[in-house]
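Summary of Year 1 activities. Much of the first year was spent building the evaluation harness for sequence design. The harness presents a backbone, in tokenized form, and records the residue chosen at every position. We chose the following record to illustrate the format because it has been used consistently in internal testing since the harness was completed.
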């Protein structure tokens, strides 16, 4: 198959087991790249998981979405077994789509579970593929949760990486971790992008007497460190303005988070509200209303939520982990604290809660930096990596 057929549109087939409204940052990133490629005239098809209430096939702004049969119970997260059902389903139906559509390339978001479908399409139809690393699919990432699965799948992961035309990590830190796993393989880095709409959010002026609103958005898993955030709250000084902690998310740690949120040792300073999992529009409204964004992760690839908060002109607090370290310039657009450093988290909260001037200055600096991560610029980098024409 010719890698670029003359006088025809570029065709790309994207595999991702989660795609909005399913899942988190990985799904959102694949959606935004798909939209940008379609805007440029590419033929973009996405093979993702079926879920109750969602159409089996639909077209959104030029992107064709096919939702294939899987076993999935929750909108925010899939179990390992549920991912395996996508793996097998995507191999069979992905090959069928490749036979019919003859794509120029395929993209596998997450080496596992999306990579095998891209591999078989290459093996059968000679379609080159790229593996886009997101974090959990890289051996060594979040070892508390994933070390067993990485030991089990490491040989398959390495085979998928070696057979790919390219392997692309979404942060330098994730690239370095992947290189430790397979030192002789060249791995590229292309960051996540940010939705242009976030720059246009109206930031309502907060009344001086109003409570400060501190937002977290993500899954309730050990990786995201919500427990670390809540355990830090009793250390915050009692003389600061009373604030609200908004936890937008869900996940396996929910009951534990609910228990920590009921801790009366900080109720004179904080009210903790569990808001549940939010779709894109609802989350954007939270960015608009919040005063501070916090991401207390123990591991990250390139956190979409952090980029989004910065684009929405929110000052941020994040942990010193790969991905977050690339976005947060300590003392300029936010604060970086060490993992598990509850005292450091408390001090960062105190500074931002107590000083509206610092919040405004950091929010402005964050928005300026986030503009360098527009999806238009990120798509240019992907297209250059693919070796295809910018236009379809």
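For this record, the design step produced the sequence shown next.
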């Amino acid at each position: 198959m010719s890698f670029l057929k003359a006088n025809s549109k570029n065709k790309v087939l994207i595999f991702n087991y989660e795609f909005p409204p399913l899942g988190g940052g990985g799904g959102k990133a694949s959606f935004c790249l798909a939209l940008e490629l379609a805007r440029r005239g590419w033929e973009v098809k996405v093979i993702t998981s079926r879920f109750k209430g969602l159409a089996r096939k639909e077209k959104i702004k030029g992107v064709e979405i096919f939702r294939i049969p899987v076993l999935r119970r929750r909108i925010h997260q899939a179990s390992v077994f549920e991912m395996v059902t996508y793996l097998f389903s995507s191999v069979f139906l992905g090959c069928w789509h490749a036979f019919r559509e003859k794509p120029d390339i395929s993209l596998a978001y997450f080496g596992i579970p999306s990579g095998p479908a891209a591999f078989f399409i290459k093996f059968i139809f000679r379609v080159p593929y790229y593996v886009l690393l997101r974090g959990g699919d890289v051996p060594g990432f979040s070892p508390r949760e994933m070390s067993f699965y990485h030991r089990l799948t490491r040989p398959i992961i390495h085979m998928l990486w070696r057979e790919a035309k390219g392997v692309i990590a979404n942060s330098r830190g994730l690239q370095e971790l992947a290189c430790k796993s397979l030192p002789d393989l060249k791995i590229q880095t292309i960051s996540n992008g940010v939705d242009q709409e976030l720059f246009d959010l109206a930031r309502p002026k907060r009344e001086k007497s109003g409570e400060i609103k501190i937002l977290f958005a993500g899954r309730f898993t050990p990786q995201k460190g919500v427990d670390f955030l809540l355990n830090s709250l009793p250390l915050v000084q009692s003389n600061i303005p009373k604030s609200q902690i908004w936890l937008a998310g869900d996940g396996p740690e929910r009951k534990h988070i609910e228990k920590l949120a009921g801790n009366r040792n900080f109720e004179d300073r904080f009210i903790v509200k569990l808001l549940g999992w939010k779709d894109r529009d609802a989350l954007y409204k939270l960015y608009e209303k919040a005063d501070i964004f916090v991401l207390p992760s123990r591991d990250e690839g390139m956190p979409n939520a952090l980029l989004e908060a910065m684009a929405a002109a929110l000052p941020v607090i994040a942990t010193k982990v790969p991905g977050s370290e690339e976005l947060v310039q300590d003392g300029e657009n936010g604060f970086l604290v060490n993992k598990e450093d509850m005292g450091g988290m408390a001090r960062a909260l105190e500074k931002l809660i107590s000083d509206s001037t610092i919040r405004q200055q950091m929010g402005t600096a964050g928005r300026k930096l986030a503009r360098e991560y527009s999806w238009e610029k990120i798509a240019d980098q992907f297209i250059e990596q693919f070796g295809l024409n910018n236009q379809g």
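The chain has two domains: 11-193+374-386, 196-372. Quantitative recovery figures across the full test set are reported in Table 2.
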